[in-house]
Amino acid sequence: RPARGDGEEREMSETVGARVLRIPPGVLSDNRPTERDKKEDALTLAELVRNRPELFYPTVIRDRKFISVRGLLKERLDAMKDRIACEQRLRQRMIGEIFRSEEGRYPEGKLEDLFDEKKASSARLKALEKDEAERDHALLEALKKLNVYTELFELVEGCGPALASRIIACIGIIHQFPTKAKFKAYLGVHCTSDGRFPRRRKGERANWNEELGRKAFFLLGDQFNRRPKSVWGQKLLEYKKKFREKHPEEVVNGKKRYTNGHILKMALWRTRTKFAEWLYVEWKRLEERESAVEKAA
């Protein structure tokens, strides 16, 4: 099966003495016969595991922990969306009540106060807030069981559980990425062959994980910018200085280039890319260490 799932297959396989093998989605895509549709992937997987077993890797106990984080993150995001939707309904209801009032007066300066009262008196919103808090706690507990979180992400200033869980859930198993280049491309922090920042363009395929990986890295870059005294905040300042020294003057050629905003954008992109490269190397190191411990046991 592709490298996605909820871990139930492994638990069932242990009961009957079988093994669960995984294959990165990209590897499956590269080895799918051109004349075969995705709907026939069950047949493709059967043929690959028979003819190309080296493309697969077994699901081990630590893989469950990553799968658990992915599932808990989804539950946490669903709970957050439900809470936000409830707040939006309360706000619209409050605005409607104001316009339908017999007095017909707008409570100038008190709109937010009225909204806070509405939220405080909503039993449904309180229940959703409690559910979201419980999901946050469960996700944090799952993260604490991962060495990649406690030894890498937790030490990065500005990268809290919310951002770390998105990146970890996006990546999952690090050895499904054979090179740094493919790792960066999947996260959307690479540069295209012509040196441009990757973005969705008509006629071009976006091969990065937009929802979890790229958005998380954009938010992480913003945290580095807000923390200039942190390790990665200092790296961001270094790149800003280098780019400004290389491009001391603004250039106008159809549109302005190398303005302060452009220099910041370039430095942020470089910092995110370097962070991804650092993460890849360190995560690989942790994975190799864990594999060695398992083999020794």
Highlighted features:
297 residues; two-stranded antiparallel sheet; two-stranded antiparallel ribbon; globular
In words, what does this structure look like?
Helices cover 64% and strands 3% of the residues. With 297 residues, it is mainly α. The strands form 2 sheets. Strands 1-2 form a two-stranded antiparallel ribbon. A hairpin with a 3-residue loop joins β3 (251-252) and β4. α4 runs antiparallel to α6 (123-143) and α9 (180-187) crosses α12 (260-296). The longest helix has 39 residues, at 61-99. It starts with 7 loop residues before the first helix and ends with a helix. 23% of the residues are buried. The model is unreliable at 1-7 (pLDDT under 50).
Structural class, from helix and strand content? mainly alpha
Radius of gyration equals 24 Å
Major sheet characteristics = 2 strands, antiparallel
Our count of helices gives 12
Output the strand order for the largest sheet: 1-2
Distance between the termini: 27 Å
Unreliable spans: 1-7
Global geometry: globular
Q: What is the percentage of strand-forming residues?
A: under 5%
Would you count the extended β strands for me? 4
From N to C, what is the helix and strand string? HEHHEHHHHHHHHEEH
Q: How much helicity do the residues have?
A: 55-70%
- Overall pLDDT confidence: 84
